[in-house]
Amino acid sequence: MRLLHRDLACQQAVELVTDYLEGALSRRDRRRFEAHLRGCPNCPAYLEQIRTTIQLAGAIEPDDLTPEARADLIGLYRRWRSE
Ligand SMILES: [Zn+2]
Fold it and tell me: How far is the CA of 67 from the centre of ligand 1 (A)?
């Protein structure tokens, strides 16, 4: 039972990640999100991954990347922003 609930909560938490990083969640949602992170073995790593990638997308010098890699990264970033 707990496992099923956790999986459902993870799915909801993942949907909230970008809003959370942008500070766009209501206080109530943010509290629920953070409570889930504390009890979840998966989501904190996922959150860090997204946070790092978003930072990289904003910090990488365009010359460091091949055009393909740059397009991939920008596409990935835009998808997160718009989801
Ligand atoms: Zn989780």
Answer: 34
